[in-house]
Amino acid sequence: METFQTPVQLKGTGEGLRLIVPEELSEKDVLTDLISLSSQAKALLGMKVILDFQGRSLGKDFIIRLLNEFIYAQHVCISSWVTYDAESQYLLQSWGMKTGEPAREVSPRKGKSCDTLFLIRSLRSGQRIEHGGDVVVIGHINDGAEVIASGNICIWGRLKGLAHAGSDGDEGQNIVVGDFQAKQVRLGHKVGSYLDSSMEWWGHPVIITLEQGSLFVRELKL
Amino acid sequence: MEPRVIVVTSGKGGVGKTTTTANVSFALAKAGFKVVAIDADIGLRNLDVVMGLENRVVYNFIDVIEGACRLPQALIRDKRVDNLFLLPAAQTRTKDAVNPEQMVDLCEMLKKEDFDFILIDSPAGIEGGFKNAAIGATEALVVTTPEIPSVRDADRIIGLLESMEKAPIRLVINRVKPKMVKEGEMLDVQDVLDVLAIELIGIVPDDESVVKSANRGEPLTSGDTSLASQAFTNIADRLLGKEVPFLNLNSHEGSGFFSGIRRLFGL
Lengths: 222, 267
Description:
The complex is a heterodimer of chains A (222) and B (267).
Chain A: E1 9-13, E2 16-20, H1 27-41, E3 48-52, H2 60-72, E4 77-82, H3 86-94, E5 116-119, E6 128-131, E7 134-137, E8 146-149, E9 153-159, E10 162-165, E11 175-180, E12 185-187, E13 190-192, E14 206-211, E15 214-219
Parallel strand pairs in A: 2-3, 3-4, 5-7, 6-8, 7-9, 8-10, 9-11, 10-12
Antiparallel strand pairs in A: 1-2, 11-14, 12-13, 14-15
Helix pairs in contact in A: 1-2
Chain B: E1 4-9, H1 17-30, E2 35-39, H2 47-50, H3 61-65, H4 71-74, E3 76-77, E4 84-87, H5 100-111, E5 117-121, H6 128-135, E6 139-144, H7 148-163, E7 169-176, H8 178-182, H9 189-196, E8 199-205, H10 208-216, H11 227-239
Parallel strand pairs in B: 1-5, 1-6, 2-4, 2-5, 6-7, 7-8
Antiparallel strand pairs in B: 3-4
Helix pairs in contact in B: 1-11, 5-6
């Protein structure tokens, strides 16, 4: 019986070319597909490639075969290996390979300090503001509302929706909230999720910063 | 007096828009006002069933808009109370059958019929159906249940209503279960108000009588003595500008009597 298999997909992104390898494809087919793709199109030459294995578990032997038969043989430049499988991530990292989503190049923050949006109102679900500079909200950001700023964000009231500071990639920005109750927060290219009411600062004033690649939420005590 | 055109809406489906429209319309008519309830949920009409008038539907408001009949022919008079009319939706058409200009025209036609209140039962959602229902209205009743998804959708709808410059926008919190609130398993009224921050006009308890009345096609406000019936009557009274205290649902867990009604707020 013939079974349907999705071949390896190519996707152009801001960080280079992304090769999405479907989980259901056998290791043998993955290699065959990748080799024929690169030799036929020569598309991978000179491009940074992200190898996205989705949730696939990568064994030592398979990685060595990928290196020998695909990466070295076809002169492919891999910028990152992506897999959700924790053991595979650990293995790749122990071999000194870059894993996870590649960090985008940080573009310098546009605008000056006077580019501040001062908003005296609350944002309801579905409402969104995006601003190239700092944003100060004197009001609440309800669940389902979004504030996106290339600079800092200061919310006087309650944050239940999404706040994304440093949206251009500048990770030196901060988010300050009067009453923090959000399930997710973003700073630069980092996403902080798994936030819930069990956190000690939940419902308190907080400052959120990015330090050494990790998001820190601290209760703000003035 | 200039007729008051009120859209009853929610965003989320199944929270009690139709029940609220039917019961508040009936209560207003009982109070002596000439009322028409419009079912704007084209293709999924229910108001006729909840009001017990489904067997009398001949024409619907799409027929009026398209000129297939005159407005008075499509209006169904409720025989249980003076001055209550239903303008049904078409069940065999879709929301695309009308455009906003036609809905405005329909409201203008109804205003000329000497109605005191025009209540429009909006479909769920935020797309064309909702916008058509809301466009001809000046005021809004937003119905929510004390559940997070429902409150979030109500918040979305309130944002849209504000951008459409509807005022006042008032809130009905439906299906409140005092026992669950007490146990901390359900949002309480203040939690909902903290998020939505609009004027509260009614708190309706979760009550078996609501299901029974919908199935029988007899609005609660036509004579039922349940707490939910009282809550809907109070909403109508507050729409008329009366100061009516909110029911204290905590003293009525499962009782259904009025004896222990106390003031929840000093409003």
